[in-house]
């Protein structure tokens, strides 16, 4: 059955998988990342996550609320954790110097595989949409991915803002 699912998967899905895998693997290495990329990637991944909820459950208020509540909870939780000590912001270059991390790769693969498995499951068993456990767990899982992605970006934006404020204070002194 798994082979049949894979054989009936549109080719573009594999292209998306390879792209996400490549983007995630690049983040395993330390390096620099622009302020724009720090902003765009979480927005794109949150969009994919929300699209997953909508494609599975339509505009169901319960599903959207579950997604949003879980995303908000994870944002608050992740914001409690400090950035790695080696994370720096170069105000002049508008770039962050970050340590490599597997978290972005895991989040991207989590969103991708959740969307893939949910899509295949619903194609074979459309009645799952009506099952409470499925209708609660899936949006919450998507919300968790979105919340973690968003919070990681917010932590970096906070660093950029505080770096800018410290530079302004130094000029004033």
From TrEMBL:
- InterPro entries in UniProt: DUF6622
Q: Record keywords: Amino-acid biosynthesis included?
A: no
**One Pfam family, short name:** DUF6622
Q: Which UniProt keywords apply?
A: Membrane, Transmembrane, Transmembrane helix
Please give the superkingdom of this protein's source.
Bacteria
Please list every transmembrane segment annotated in the UniProt record, as residue ranges. Answer: 12-29, 38-58, 64-84, 96-118, 130-151
- Name recorded for this polypeptide: Transmembrane protein
Organism for this UniProt entry: Variovorax beijingensis
Provide the taxonomic classification: Bacteria, Pseudomonadati, Pseudomonadota, Betaproteobacteria, Burkholderiales
């Amino acid at each position: 059955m798994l082979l049949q699912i894979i054989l009936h998967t549109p080719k573009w899905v594999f292209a998306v998988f390879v792209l996400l895998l490549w983007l995630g693997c690049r983040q395993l290495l330390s390096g620099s990342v622009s302020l724009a990329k720090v902003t765009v990637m979480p927005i794109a991944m949150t969009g994919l996550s929300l699209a997953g909820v909508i494609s599975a459950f339509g505009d169901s208020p319960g599903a959207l609320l579950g997604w949003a509540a879980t995303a908000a909870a994870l944002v608050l939780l992740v914001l409690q954790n400090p950035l790695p000590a080696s994370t720096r912001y170069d105000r002049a270059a508008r770039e962050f110097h970050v340590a490599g991390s597997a978290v972005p790769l895991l989040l991207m693969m989590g969103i991708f595989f959740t969307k893939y498995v949910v899509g295949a499951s619903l194609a074979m068993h459309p009645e799952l949409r009506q099952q409470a456990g499925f209708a609660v767990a899936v949006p919450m899982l998507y919300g968790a991915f979105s919340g973690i992605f968003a919070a990681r970006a917010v932590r970096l934006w906070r660093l950029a803002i505080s770096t800018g404020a410290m530079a302004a204070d130094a000029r004033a002194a």
